[in-house]
Design a protein that fits this description.
- The complex is a heterodimer of chains A (358) and B (263).
- Chain A contains 14 helices and 4 strands.
- Chain A is mostly helical and 358 residues long.
- Chain B has 263 residues and is of the alpha/beta class.
- Helix content of chain B is 38%, strand content 22%.
- Chain B has a 6-stranded mixed beta sheet, sandwiched between helices. A 4-stranded antiparallel beta sheet of chain B has the order 2-1-4-5, with helices on one face.
- In chain B, a hairpin with a 2-residue loop joins strand 1 (11-20) and strand 2.
- In chain B, helix 3 (102-109) packs parallel to helix 6.
- The chains are: A mainly alpha (358), B alpha/beta (263).
Chain lengths: 358, 263
């Protein structure tokens, strides 16, 4: 099918305000979503599901969360790992304290707990901006990890200090715990990221999204229009932390199976921030692209020498992988500082005019 | 549009003083703006014109004096509350949301008319959606009025300066203000753009019955479009009156050109 918009006339504001105003986009996205639910669980190998697709979806959710806060509301945060940890430990406590509570409810409640913590650490944002705010959120990161290390109650006094996902079912299918199939866990992660991706898209194209972007672009002008800075920023922190919290719970329950605080250290915060920057600040699609880039490229680089038939030592291979990965990040940021999402957008615009660009 | 009874002035500034440290930026300035009036505030650089607008819109709070809007005291309100009363403004250096489209910029201007419901907004469903469409329809009327249909999907940051000023006016109009504060709406424009802007200001005043207070340096514009002129110098009001009188007032001429020292 050719990417053409000729003959597609919008006769109502509703059709112009739709998420995907172009017919081809709607078709492709619907097909991709259906395919994502059907194909991988049926065809993909255990390795692909467990090591590639599940972390990709979990990180995409976290990246959407951070993108709402940093990309849309313009509040730089380095506390993502901490907020993910809050979600993970809350989910663990909730599912062990109330074994009959539905696991979906556990995830959502864990997200709410994270949202509350996020709100608390968002309060300084009224006074502090930019890099200074980033440092303030770094305090959240270190404090939260310290708290979960220090207080044994959070891990139910397990001497190892690890939290483990218990067996839980959704509609009679085991989705968490050591006995759940990777296919079931994949579908669970996909359902969450699809629904909350849509919710995020709805929020950013409406009243709240515009208020966030207004605060990001010109806070003084936003205030004179009637936007309350504190309330708007706190909502961004709360909703963003909700996403990160759910992603954190998924990281343990759907991906790792069990984890210590090390899984949520500051590297995690940076990783999600890189996803958002490379994917595109202020773009929901960018969150997916960024997560895909950060998750897929190292896997590709790890396997590339093997596919090429090269024999090299593991250490050397690891070093080369890091160098190429870093180089690629720099390359993409130079080619398009606004991220992969903008690159994709430009491609689409060119495609609409192709083959007569003038 | 509001609960004003139509009698008495819309905005009253009574003996307002603003101090930044030792600097007295405004000293006991009083003025009144009637319904439907176009009032120009002029004065040499540093006279306190922008400070006065900032006091009216709630960025600064006077250390003495009072501000009454539509008969109610609002001296100590915050900027975001001032917006709710029906006061909108533009800025001397354009303060658009550069990353957002023209359409989104003007839609943002309607935010005080929108009601929030997080759950419905998350689903983009029911009242949340119909509200969006209602505001879109209103915003489109402003876009038509300002003749910026062709750029509605363009990010504001990519527009030339003159158009940015026009979009900023649109954003202020979106709130359906009773009082519109314009801080140097013609600054940095060429003659044609100035003529367009004058036309829009007069049309806004005419069609929407919006009261307008503007700060402007271009005297020909001020003399042409304003009903009344207030002249500030060193934070004091030195005179006020119709443009024809102010133009010939000796104190105004002295303020702009200086007074010869008696030697």
């Amino acid at each position: 099918m050719i990417y053409r918009t000729a003959g597609q006339f919008k006769t109502t504001y509703a059709s112009d305000q739709a998420i995907f105003p172009i017919v081809q986009d709607r078709v492709v996205v619907t097909l991709a979503l259906v395919a994502a639910f059907v194909v991988p669980p049926a065809l993909a190998s255990e390795y692909w599901l467990q090591a590639v697709l599940i972390p990709l979806l979990v990180y995409a959710l976290a990246a959407i969360g951070l993108n709402l806060l940093t990309g849309y509301a313009g509040q730089l945060s380095l506390g993502t790992g901490g907020f993910m940890a809050v979600g993970a430990y809350s989910a663990f406590k909730l599912s062990t304290a109330f074994p009959h509570l539905d696991i979906v409810a556990v995830f959502l409640l864990a997200g709410l707990v994270a949202a509350g913590v996020g709100l608390l650490f968002g309060i300084p944002s009224l006074r502090i901006k930019g890099f200074y705010l980033a440092v303030a959120t770094l305090a959240a990161q270190f404090f939260l990890i310290w708290l979960f290390n220090k207080v044994a109650w959070f891990v139910n006094y397990a001497p190892s200090g690890t939290i483990t996902a218990p067996d839980r079912e959704v509609l009679g299918v085991l989705v968490t715990g050591p006995n759940a199939t990777s296919g079931a866990r994949y579908v669970m992660a996909l359902a969450f990221v699809a629904i909350f991706g849509l919710v995020a898209k709805n929020l950013v194209r409406g009243r709240l999204g515009r208020a966030w972007m207004a605060i990001r672009d010109r806070d003084i002008a936003a205030e004179i229009i009637g936007i309350r800075p504190l309330r708007t920023k706190l909502l961004a922190f709360g909703i963003s932390s909700f996403y990160c919290g759910v992603a954190g719970a998924e990281l343990v329950f759907l991906y790792l199976g069990s984890a210590e605080t090390l899984a949520f250290d500051v590297n995690q915060s940076f990783l999600v921030l890189f996803m958002v920057i490379i994917g595109g600040l202020g773009s929901i699609l960018g969150s997916f692209l960024g997560a895909a880039f950060i998750v897929l490229v190292p896997i590709f680089l790890t396997n590339a020498p093997h596919w090429l038939g090269l024999n090299m030592s593991v250490a050397l291979q690891k070093h080369i992988e890091l160098m190429i990965f870093g180089g690629l990040i720099i390359f993409f940021l130079i080619v398009e500082p606004h991220g992969l999402a903008r690159l994709w957008q430009i491609t689409k615009e060119k495609l609409r005019l192709w083959p007569f660009p003038h | 549009m509001s609960a004003t009874d139509g009698t008495g002035p819309l905005l009253e500034v009574e003996g307002v003083s603003v101090r930044f440290g030792a600097l007295l930026a405004l000293s006991r300035v009083s003025l009144a703006v009637g319904h439907g009036e176009i009032l120009a505030i002029i004065g040499p650089n540093g006279a306190g014109k922008t400070t006065l607008l900032n006091v009216i819109s709630g960025f600064y709070h006077p250390y003495e004096g009072r501000i009454r809007f539509a008969g109610r005291d609002r001296t100590h309100l915050k900027p975001y509350d001032v917006a709710g009363l029906g006061i909108a403004r533009t800025f001397q250096n354009v303060a658009l949301f550069k990353g957002m489209t023209v359409l989104d910029n003007i839609m943002t201007g309607r935010i005080i008319k929108a009601r929030g419901n997080l759950l419905l907004e998350a689903l983009y469903w029911g009242p949340a959606m119909s509200q969006e469409l209602r505001h879109r329809a209103f915003v489109e009327r402003i876009i038509d009025f300002l003749e910026i249909e062709a750029i509605r999907k363009t990010p504001a940051g990519r527009l030339p300066y003159g158009l940015q000023k026009r979009v900023e006016l649109g954003r202020a109009l979106a709130a359906e203000p009773e009082l519109l504060l314009l801080d140097e709406p013609m600054a940095g424009m060429n003659v044609e753009e100035k003529e367009d802007m004058c036309r829009f200001i007069l049309d806004v005043n005419d069609e929407f019955d919006t009261t307008i207070v503007l700060v402007e340096h271009d005297m020909s514009v001020v003399m042409d479009i304003s009903d009344r002129v207030v002249v500030l110098d060193y934070g004091r009001k030195i005179t006020e009156g119709p443009p024809s009188e102010v133009r010939t007032d000796q104190t105004v001429i002295d303020a702009y050109l200086g007074v010869p020292h008696a030697s």
